[in-house]
Amino acid sequence: MLLAIRERLTGWVAYTIVILLSVPFALWGINSYLDGGGPTEVAKVGKAEISQNEFQRAFRQQLSMLQEQGIDPSRLDDQLLRRSVLEQLINTRVIEQTSRVLGLRVSDQQLNQMIRSIPAFQDNGRFDMERYQRRLLQEGYSAVGFEHMLRESLVAEQLQQGMIESAFLTDADLQHYLSLQNQQRRFEYLVFSLDAHRQEVSIDESAITEYYQANQDMFLSPEQVRLEYLELTVDELAATIEIDEDALQAEYQRRSAQLSVPERRSASHILVRVADEADDSMVAEAQSQAEQLYQQIDTEGAEFAAVLEANLTQPHIEGGELGTIEPGLMDPGFEDALFALDEVGAITPPVRTRFGFHIIRLDSIRAGQTPALDEVREELERDLRMTRAERQFFDAAETLANITFEQPDSLFPAAEMLDLTIRESEWMDRSSRSGIARHEQVRDVAFSPDVLLDRLNSPALEIEPGHVVVVRVADHQPADTLALEEVREQIVETLRDQYATERLQLELEEALTMAREGTSLHTLAEETADTTLHQPEPVTRTADDVDPVLLGAVFQLTPPQPGAVHYAISELSDGDQALLALHEVVPGAATPEDEAALAELRDQLGFRTGDEQFRNFIEHHREQLNIRIRESRLQ
Amino acid sequence: MAANYSDQEQVDKIKDWLKTNGPGIIAGVVLGLIAIGGWQWWQSRTQAHAEAASGYYSAMLEAVSLGDTSQVRRHATVLADEFDNTYYAVLGALLVARLDIEAGEQDAAISQLQWALAQTKDEALQSVIRLRLARVLLAEQQLDQASTQLDQVTAVQFTAERAELQGDVYRAREQLDQARRAYETALNAGGGQQRLRWKLDSLPETL
Predict the structure, then answer these.
(1) ipTM score assigned to the predicted complex
(2) DSSP symbol at A140
C-alpha cells in the first residue's frame, strides 16, 4: 500500500501536500523557542500571571517596609509573610481584570502624563528620558513591561477610587450612629464585697491536700542548670596589651595631620553679581565697577563698611560679614585670595568667582594648632591597644572555637592554651535573666540536646560584637514537684478565693431573685451585710468614673420599658460583684455642636463603608476567576 | 479512494472543481477579510470611545479630590450624555449621588442611583448600588422600597451590610424581633462589630 501511495504522490500534487504539512510543523516549533523554557509564574489569576520576578520584587519591598516600621521580619513566619504578599498581588490582579471586564481603559496620553509626573523620573522638575530609562533598568523593568504595569494600576485605581469615594452615609445613618454613641444610661448598683466572705470561710486540711494532689502540674519547679564557660572579649584583651614609646611616636606622626586644627579666618566682602548667562560686555562692566569700589577704599581711603552701605541699594551688589571660613568650604578663588592676605583689615582687589567679583576684607585670624604628643597620648594609646586587641581577638576566637570543638568534653585545654579562667554561673532556668544567662543565645544553647544531654561543649557563641563565649553544663537539676509545705500558702489563698466567690455568687442570685420580685436595691442594701449601694448620675459609654467591667454590663442590658427595671449580675475589676439595676436608656444628642466633627465623622464612616463595599465587590469577582497557586515556587 | 486516476485526469478534475466552486471561495475569503477588518475597526472605535470617557472620568476624580463639586457635576453630565454605554458613566453617577446626599437632595440621589442601576449588568456592582439605594430609601422612610432593593442584593459577599440595613428597616417598622435577628446575622457575617453591638443592645424590650 505504501508503494501505491508513493506512486501517486508525484509532480505538483506531492509538493502541495508537503508544503501544507510543513506549515504546522514550523509553527509548532517556534512556540517553544519564544517561551524561553517553560512557565515560571507563581500564580495564575484568570488569564493573568504573577511571575516569579514580580513576586520576589514585591516580597523584598514588603521586607524593607517592615524594617522601616521597626519590625524585624526574621521574627515573623516566613511562609505566612510570603502568602500574604502573594494574596495582595492576586487581589491587585483581580482588581485589574475586573476593571478590564467593566471596559475601563486609559489612553496613551493619560499614561504619558502619569509617567511624566513621577518625581523619580524628573531632573530639576522636568521629565528626563535618560533618567527614566536608567531608573527602569535599575529596578529591573523593561519599558514595555513597566508601561503595561502602570496602565493596569491606573485603571485599577480608577475603579477603586470611584467606588470608595462615591460611598456615603445618610444624615439618618449619622443621627442613628450618634444617638447610639452618645447614649446615656441611668442605673444603680449594689456592691457585694468578696473580702468579707474571704474572712469568713474556713479551709480544712483535707481540702488543701486534695487540691495539691489534683493539681500537681501547677507546682513544678523549673528545670535548672549550672554552667561553666570561657569568655573572650576585646576589652579584656586590650587591657593586657603594652604599647611602647616607639609605636606611640610612629602613630603620632602618622596621625598628626588628622589631629591638627587648620587655620581659620573670618572675612567680609562686597560682591558685584554677574549673572550666569551674562555676556562679555556685562562681565567687563561688573569688573570695572568692582575696580572702582576697590579704588575708593584702597586709594581714596574710604571705609569698607561705608562703601558697602552706600552701594547696597543697587540690586546686583550685596555683601557683609561672612563669619569664620575653614579651608575647603568656599569657592577656591575666593579662598586663595583670602588666605593670601597677611594682616587683619587688609583688602583684596576684585576676585572673580562664579558669583561675580568680590572685594574681600580679612576680619580676624584664628591660628591652626597641632596638639603635642602628651595631650593626645591617652587617646592614641587607647586606639592602638584596641586595634591590636581586635586583631588578636579574631585569632584567639578561632583557636577557642577549634579547640573546644576538637576536645568537646572539657573546657580545660582551651583555657590552658589561651590563658583564660573557667568561670561558673549561678543556677539558671529558661527564664533566668541575670549573669551570663541574660544572653538569649546562651539560654537556648544551655538547654539544647547536645549541651544538656550529651554534655558537650557548646559552639563558640558571638553574643555581641567582640564578645565570644563557649559554655558547657556543669550541673543539672530536672524539673521537680514542689513539696506541699512550699506551696501551702498559695493553695490556701486560691481555695479561699474560690470558696468566697462561690458564697458570693449564691448570695447575689438570691438578691437578684428578690429584686426581680420587687424588693428595691435600697431595702436589699439595708438587709444584707457588707454591701454598698451606688446611685451614680446617668453615664455615657466612655464614662471613666465607673468600673469598666460594670460599664460594659450596663450597656449590654436590653433597655427596659418605661417605668420598668432590668436587673443583672456583674463582676467588678477587683473581684467584688454587683447587682445592677438599669432604669432608663436616654438616646444621645444626635448632632454634636461642632460642624467640623460631624463632617469628619461623615467622611470617616463613609470611607469605611466604601472600603468594605469595594473589598466585597472584589471578593465577588475573585470567586469567579480561576486562581491557581504554585506553592513550590513561593520560595 | 477506489478509482485510479492519472496525473492529467487529476489536474482536469481539480480544474473542474475550481470552476464550479472558485467564485464561492473568493467571495468567502473577501467576506472573511471584511469581517476581520470590521471587527478591528469596531474594536478600535470602542477603545477610543472608552479612552475618551476615561479622560473625563479622571478629570472628575481630580475635581472630587479638590472638592470642586460643580466641575464634578459637569463632567458627570458629559459622561451620562455621550458615554452612557460605558461604566465610566455609572461610576460618575455614583459620585454625583454622593454629592446629592451631602447637599441634602436625597430625591436627586435616588434618581442617580436608579439610573446607574439600570445601566449596570455586573452582579456585584448591582449589589453595591442596591445597598446604597436602600440606604437612601430608608432615610426617606420608603421602607417597602428599601426592603425590595435589599431582597435583590444577591451576591453573598454583601450579607453583612445587607442584613444590617434590613435590621434598620425592621427597626424603623418597629418589628424588633426581626431587627434583632437581622443584626445578629450581620454580626455573624463579620459586619462592623462595635456598631452592630450598639444597635443590638439598644433595641428596646419586646412585650
Answers:
(1) 0.85
(2) T
